[in-house]
Amino acid sequence: MLPITYHPIYKHPLPENHKFPMLKYDLLPQQILLHGIAEETDFFEPNPVDLAHVLAIHEKEYVNSLLNYTLDAKAQRKIGFPLSAALVERELRIAQGTISGCEMAMQAGVAFNIAGGTHHAFSNCGEAFCMLNDQAIAAKYILNKKLATKILIVDLDVHQGNGTAEIFQNEAKVFTFSVHGKNNYPFRKEISDMDIALEDKTADEEYLKIIKEFVPKLIAQQKPDFIFYLSGVDILATDKLGKLGCSIEACRKRDEIVLSLCKKHEIPVQVSMGGGYSPEIKTIVDAHSNTFRVASEIYF
Questions:
Q1: Domains of the chain, CATH where assigned
Q2: CA distance 283 to 49
Q3: How many CB atoms are located within 10 Å of the residue 285 CB?
Q4: Parts of the chain with a pLDDT under 50
Q5: pLDDT of residue 21
Q6: What is the Cα–Cα distance from 279 to 240, expressed in whole angstroms?
Q7: Which of 226, 221, 214 is nearest to 262 (CA)?
Q8: Which of 165, 160, 163 is nearest to 185 (CA)?
Q9: DSSP the chain
Q10: Do the record's keywords include Hydrolase (predicted)?
Q11: Rounded Cα distance, 60 and 207, in Å
């Protein structure tokens, strides 16, 4: 079984200029089913998350402004989506999907959220298509439930996980690790527990060398009993919003390194998809599909 969170609410109505980033959420499940990477029974649909878990991470005033649709126009522009009931529900379901994925990963070793990786959501605001920080909410949940004692967040999206860094800046039980483009958004970076900022056009060899060096080292040093992995495919050279120069094969190899280490050390891992903005939707879906394919090969 390859536990995967998916819900058709991801296809909520959007203006034309917002539809492309969301299209992969519909196509990705179809592709991994078509290629036999997963089966229908591997998918589960989350309910909206209990607000108590959201409020353990996000400030009440901000959460209320989302729930009551009173977020001001400037804040909505910063997020990049017009606020709507469907959008808020989607965020609440994504967060629960990641929480449920954590519980399933503790049984299966690994679990996925087709969406998620909303690492630009801060404790008191959202930005860059992120409203609620799914992995932060889930990390706090498993700590509060005493399902884990030390968490490592491995954020390999091309953009720094600035919201996650801010949320856990004073939390010793969570170690935040981000490898990202130096000159990519966000232009004002937060401070993770470890940040590696890469120069423009950093390509396969250098990129994979860093992953091979630092992920095993952090596992040895931090001794996490749970890992969150943000597997953004916007590290690709083709990505419209990324400035790195990696190939699809390097993306696949990166996933193999991280997931093999989790398996080797018997550390449950929850994977959220994160970004991917190449001009061809097929490129995005193929790169994300490889993450599921690698996990299936390693774990099952």
A1: 4-299 (3.40.800.20)
A2: 32
A3: 22
A4: 9-20
A5: 55
A6: 7
A7: 226
A8: 160
A9: ---EE--GGGG----HHHHHHHHHHHHHHHHHHHTTSS-GGGEE-PPPPPHHHHHTTS-HHHHHHHHTT---HHHHHHHTS---HHHHHHHHHHHHHHHHHHHHHHHHSEEEESS---TT--SS--BTTBSS-HHHHHHHHHHHTTS-S-EEEEE-SSS--HHHHHHTTT-TTEEEEEEEETTSSPSS----SEEEEEPTT--HHHHHHHHHHHHHHHHHHH--SEEEEE--STTBTT-SS----B-HHHHHHHHHHHHHHHHHTT--EEEE------SSHHHHHHHHHHHHHHHHHHH-
A10: yes
A11: 39
164, with CB counted inside 10 A (0-12, 13-18, 19+), is: buried
Provide the pLDDT for residue 23: 78
Q: At residue 19, what are phi and psi to the nearest 5 degrees?
A: -75, -35
Residue 125 bridge partners (DSSP): none
**Quick one: 119 exposed, middle or buried, by C-beta within 10 A (0-12, 13-18, 19+)?**
buried
Using CA atoms, how far apart are residues 239 and 220, in angstroms rounded to an integer? 33
149 Cβ neighbours under 8 A, 6+ residues apart: 143, 173, 225
Identity at 248, one-letter amino acid code: I
- Rg over CA atoms, the chain: 17
The pLDDT assigned to 26 comes to 82
**Dihedral pair phi/psi, residue 169, rounded to 5°:** -60, -25
- Neighbour-count burial for 22-47, b at 16+ CB within 10 Å, e otherwise: bebbeebbebbeeeebbeeebbeebe
Residues in the chain, total? 300
Q: What pLDDT, on a 0 to 100 scale, did the predictor assign at position 19?
A: 47
